[in-house]
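From the methods appendix. Each design record in this collection lists the tokenized structure first, followed by the designed amino acid sequence. Records were kept in a plain field format so they could be parsed without special tools. The example shown here is representative of the layout used throughout.

RECORD:
FOLD TOKENS (274 positions):
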């Protein structure tokens, strides 16, 4: 019993260390609605964008670790960021779709961490868009509940500027999806979506846009949207996606610049600390 108590105390102490060491990329602020992303990315002000505060504990609980100083997995996302930036710079690309063959592979977790990791670099801003209109989840990773989102814009009556959320992390803005909807593929095909893409991809020269996508196989939303995006990152879950599904997914993404694959939820393998 005593040993269990000791183990629990040790685990709690370790957790506290990570939380204390977490350089809160999050800051406070409670502005509300309407756009305010300044074109000067080194001094962005969010005077009207809704701001939410993400605590280090929320980040840890949600595996949003890229911004937590000293967290062992933050390095993983730094390496991913570097590889991706290299390919994006070479190809002159600023839009990335994060997708996977099947559901639940970790797309949103990867997209959210990648967005945070990229935003820690000072030379660009990042917009993370929740493109999973049926099962939105980006807001959960940042610990808030959006009243409205992209789906409300595409249905016709809400300005994008009133839907953006600043998670208190410098240079990062989120576009949540809003309440889940079922007729998502129709909305994705509307001229509103085409106009939106034109606007968000050209408005700021040094902005990277990450789309958290639904899975590629089984529903058509991702397939409909993919031609609008320049590059893709495929998340593959160990023991779930079959080789045939991965092959089929790569074929479906052929027309984009493939930035790479993330092999997620892998069991621990013996490996060098590097
Ligand atoms: N490497 C990992 N280790 C353990 N759990 C993980 C890992 N990656 C993701 N998860 C967990 O798996 C669940 C699914 O992750 P996530 O929501 O990112 O998947 P998804 O591919 O976006 O799912 P969906 O297809 O529903 O959009 C979440 O609870 C997440 O915290
Ligand atoms: Mg998801």
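DESIGN:
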């Amino acid at each position: 019993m005593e040993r269990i108590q000791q183990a629990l105390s040790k685990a709690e102490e370790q957790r506290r260390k990570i939380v204390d060491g977490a350089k809160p990329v999050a800051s406070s602020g409670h502005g509300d609605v309407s756009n305010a992303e300044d074109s000067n990315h080194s001094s962005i002000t969010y005077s009207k964008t809704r701001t939410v505060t993400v605590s280090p504990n929320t980040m840890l609980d949600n595996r949003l670790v890229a911004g937590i100083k000293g967290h062992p997995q933050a390095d993983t996302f730094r390496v991913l960021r570097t590889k991706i930036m290299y390919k994006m710079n070479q190809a002159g690309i600023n839009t990335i779709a994060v997708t996977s063959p099947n559901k639940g592979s970790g797309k949103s977790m990867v997209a959210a961490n990648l967005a945070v990791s990229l935003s820690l670099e000072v030379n660009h801003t990042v917009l993370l868009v929740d493109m999973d209109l049926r099962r939105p989840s980006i807001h959960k990773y940042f610990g808030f509940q959006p009243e409205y989102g992209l789906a409300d814009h595409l249905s016709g009556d809400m300005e994008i500027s009133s839907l953006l959320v600043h998670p208190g992390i410098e240079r990062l803005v989120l576009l949540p999806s809003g309440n889940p909807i079922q007729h998502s593929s129709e909305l994705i095909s509307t001229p509103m979506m085409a106009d939106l893409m034109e606007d968000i991809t050209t408005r700021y020269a040094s902005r990277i846009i990450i789309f958290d996508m639904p899975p590629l196989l089984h529903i058509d939303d991702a397939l409909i949207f993919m031609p609008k995006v320049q590059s893709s990152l495929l998340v593959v879950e160990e023991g779930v996606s079959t080789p045939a599904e991965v092959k089929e997914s790569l074929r479906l993404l052929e027309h984009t610049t493939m930035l790479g694959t993330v092999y997620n939820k892998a069991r621990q393998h013996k490996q060098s600390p590097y």
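APPENDIX NOTE: The first strand starts at residue 50 and ends at 51.
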